[in-house]
Automatic annotation (TrEMBL):
Mg(2+) 2 binds at residues 117, 120, 280. Homotetramer. Residues 7-199 form the Fructose-1-6-bisphosphatase class I N-terminal domain. It is found in: Cytoplasm. Keywords: Carbohydrate metabolism, Cytoplasm, Hydrolase, Magnesium, Metal-binding. This is Fructose-1,6-bisphosphatase class 1. GO terms for molecular function: fructose 1,6-bisphosphate 1-phosphatase activity. Residues 204-331 form the Fructose-1-6-bisphosphatase class 1 C-terminal domain. Its cofactor is Mg(2+). Binds 2 magnesium ions per subunit. The lineage of its organism: Bacteria, Pseudomonadati, Bacteroidota, Flavobacteriia, Flavobacteriales. Pathway: Carbohydrate biosynthesis; Calvin cycle. It is an enzyme of class 3 (hydrolase). Mg(2+) 1 binds at residues 93, 117, 119.
Amino acid sequence: MENNNLTLGEFIIENQKHYKSTSGEFTRLLSSIKLAAKVVNYKVNKAGLVDIMGAAGETNIQGEDQQKLDVYANDVFMKTLINREIVCGIASEEEDDFVTITGKEGTNENKYVVLIDPLDGSSNIDVNVSVGTIFSIYKRVTPIGTPVQIEDFLQPGNLQVAAGYVVYGTSTMLVYTSGNGVDGFTLNPAIGSFYLSHPKFRFPDDGKIYSINEGNYIHFPQGVKDYLKYCQEEKDERPYTSRYIGSLVSDFHRNMIKGGIYMYPTSSIGPKGKLRLLYECNPMAFLAEQANGKASDGFKRILDIKPTELHQRVPFFCGSKNMVAKAEEFMANYPEDADY
Ligand SMILES: O=P(O)(O)OC[C@H]1O[C@](O)(COP(=O)(O)O)[C@@H](O)[C@@H]1O
Ligand SMILES: [Mg+2]
Ligand SMILES: [Mg+2]
C-alpha cells in the first residue's frame, strides 16, 4: 500500500471539480493547511526534547492558561495562512478577536475565512497523549475586497465549505470534508507527504463506546445521568465501554472508526458546556454528518445553531447516529435543559 495511494496534494487537485471554486484558491488554502500541519507535527513529535512543554505564562480570552504548544501552533497556522495571502480573515481559539488579512497591496481579494483550534487537547501535550488541530472554512458574506466583518465568522455550521482536523497520534493524519464525504490521509514521515489511507470514513450507525469526563458526573443534567445508566446497564449489547482521551479530535477519530458517542454536556459548573461552537463543534459536526454520524447540543442540530459570539460554547453530543438519537431521547425528558 505504501506510496501507491494518492497524495493529499493529488487528491485535492483531483477533487477540484467538487469545490464550488474554480480559481484554485481553495486548493491553495488546503495546501497551506497541509504545510502548517507538517510544521506543527515536526514540533509535536519531539515535544520532550525541545522547549515546547508546559505553560506559556499567558491566558487566552477564555481565561485558559495557554500552553507553549498552543501558542506555537497558533503562530504556525496564522503565519502560513497570512504569508500565503490565501484568506481574508482568521479566527482562532488563541486570538481574542478575528484577524483581518490585508495583502501586500493593502487589499485582499480572497473569499475564504478560516476558524481554527490550533492545538486541541492541550491538557495532553506534556503527557505524550495524542492531540490535534481543528479547522473550519467559510466563504465570506461581506463584499470581496473590503475588510472582513464579524458576520463573516458568525455563520451557521451548515454554511461551511470545508472542515477537518489533524491528529498527532501514533501516526499523524489529516482528515477533512468539503461536502463530498470524509477522507483521511496519513503522513509518511520518511517522505513528508500525506497519503490517502482512509477513503470515505463512515461512522457505524451504532457503537459500544461512550466518551465523557465522568469526573463531572454530579454536575450533569438528569438526561445525561439517565443515558449513562442506560450505557452501563447489563442488557442487549450493553454495557458499553467507557473511553475518554481528553482530546476531542482523538476521541472523535476513534469513535468514527469503531462506533461511539462523545459528550461534553451542559452542567451545573458549565451551563454552556466547554467546547467552542465555531472552531470545535461546527467542524466536527460537519465531519460527523458527512460520515453518516450525528451532532447536536442534546436537543437541536449543531449545524443549525446561529452563532452570536466568536468564542461561544455549546453542549456537544456527537458520534454514531443511533447513539446520539438515544442520548437525545433521554435529554428530551427534561426540556428545561434545552435552555442553557
Ligand atoms: O479536561 P476536560 O474538562 O474533560 O476537557 C477535555 C476537552 O477539552 C478540550 O481539551 C478542549 O480543547 P482545547 O484543548 O483546544 O482547549 C477537548 O479537546 C477535550 O475533549
Ligand atoms: Mg479544542
Ligand atoms: Mg485548543
